[in-house]
Amino acid sequence: MIDGLHKAFESRVRLGIMAVLIVNDWVDHGTLKELLSVTDGNLASHMTALTSTRYVQVRKRFIGSRPNTSYKATVAGTKAFKDHLDAMDQLLKKDLRQ
Fold this sequence. Notes:
The chain is an alpha+beta fold. 51% of the residues lie in helices and 18% in strands. Strand 2 (56-63) and strand 3 (66-73) form a beta hairpin. The mean pLDDT is 93.
């Protein structure tokens, strides 16, 4: 029953990251940090895990003279997350009283 669940999304922070990224194009580090109420280090460690699976793409650039890091869900990440949500939905619908 849980074969469709992705280990990469077991953390509530990673669930939150992916939920934000699949409905937005690019989201900067500060915005994600504020939305999810996490520390810089916590967000960075979860992003490392998601980028290592290639579920999230990172863009580092300067806006004016200030550094800016933004994130975007990849096609593979979007598919994996939607598959994860579908598997959760199937679990929620499972009636064991049959």
